[in-house]
Write a structure and sequence with these properties.
This protein is α/β, with parallel strands linked by helices. It contains nine helices and 16 strands. A hairpin with a 2-residue loop joins strand 4 and strand 5.
């Protein structure tokens, strides 16, 4: 990494005619413009079979990248790390900040505990997992805590917010900064059965209708997952929040629309999937007005930008108070969602 937070990549590749670099760093984004796909960027051959490319300065965070050698996607042979599941097929590079970021592990602050739970869902007829963050000192007191139900995206699972998003570090950081202590529940968001999943793969018959999945998710979420959590943990039931990224943002919106009395706050991060609810939002405007805090955000280099802009416009037209934020920190990537979670927690 260079002093200005740009990164220089060098790759030795013999007999190659063309070498490119691609990934989440969004090379050339300012030239291409918002919400447009960015093609791989050519690397320059500098002799002795060495190809090089220096990025624009980038914000602190972890980014996935890969090379394209004569049209073939290739991991960095000196850094072949794969990270399950979002970054499969990518090497990773971390850009350090001048100061620790909220998602970094900061040694000299108190740290919460993460518990993995499993429960049986009657709605899905299967056992489902979830991760639960408990704030520092939870085991040494009998008080009750606010709760945030936090959803992952469609390409991830219930561990995504921990392994990729470092949500536990973020909450530790925010509590150390004197925000309220909070329990965070990260449930599994995929609601197809294994049989349905394999049948779709084998037959090619296509996806299950999204509306069917939304109704199934609502049943699973409200009647199975939340009662299990709230029976086992000390939760202030009048201080619930719900939020999610991408697919999880759409799920959060749908749950909150149908059960607004359950939640004081709603966060929708970079959610293209929320677009399927645009037409019914006016029907739910009175319900959504009951939610004290609604926060919608996304990066301007996200290919779903126009969808969450449309969501903001429809909510605004329906007279529903909310906060809408477009950020300049990337596209459909974890850095954007880490910032979104940090900002959302300050509003709870």
């Amino acid at each position: 990494m260079n002093q200005d937070h740009s990164i220089t990549f060098n790759l030795k590749s013999e007999n190659s005619k063309k070498v490119e670099i691609d990934g989440e760093l969004r090379f050339g984004r300012e030239q291409v413009g918002p919400h447009k796909p960015i093609p791989p960027v050519p690397m320059k051959k500098i002799g002795n079979n060495i190809w090089t490319f220096t990025t624009e300065p980038v914000d602190p965070g972890v980014y996935g990248y890969f090379f394209v050698i004569d049209g073939i996607k290739t991991l960095d042979p000196l850094n072949p790390r794969k990270s399950y599941p979002v970054y499969i097929g990518s090497s990773l590079v971390k850009v350090e900040g001048d100061e620790p970021m909220p998602w970094d592990l900061i040694p000299d602050i108190a740290h919460g505990t993460v518990v993995i739970e499993k429960f049986y869902s009657k709605a899905l007829k299967q056992v489902k997992p979830c991760a639960v963050y408990l704030p520092p000192g939870y085991r040494s007191t009998d008080k009750k805590y606010p709760v945030l139900y936090l959803q992952h995206g469609g390409g991830d699972d219930y561990l995504g917010w921990l392994f990729q998003g470092k949500a536990d570090n973020i909450v530790d950081y925010m509590i150390a900064k004197k925000t309220d202590e909070i329990i965070v529940v990260m449930p599994e968001g995929h609601v197809t059965t294994p049989e349905e999943h394999y049948r779709i793969l084998a037959s090619g018959e296509g996806r299950i209708p999204e509306q069917n999945l939304s109704e199934r998710y609502l049943d699973y979420y409200v009647n199975d997952m939340m009662p299990f959590i709230e029976k086992k943990y000390r939760i202030l039931k009048d201080s619930r929040a719900i939020a999610g990224l991408s697919m999880g943002g759409g799920e959060s919106l749908y749950v909150a629309m149908n059960h607004p009395s359950l939640f004081k706050a709603l966060g929708v991060f970079s959610s293209g999937s929320a677009g399927r609810f645009l037409d019914i939002i006016p029907q739910f405007k009175d319900q959504l007005k009951k939610i004290k805090t609604i926060y919608i955000s996304g990066g301007i280099y996200d290919t779903a930008l126009e969808t969450f802009r449309a969501l903001h416009k429809r909510i605004e037209e329906s007279g529903i108070p909310h906060t809408y934020v477009e950020t300049n920190d990337g596209g459909h990537i974890w850095l954007v969602w880490q910032h979104a979670l940090t900002r959302f927690l300050t509003r709870l």
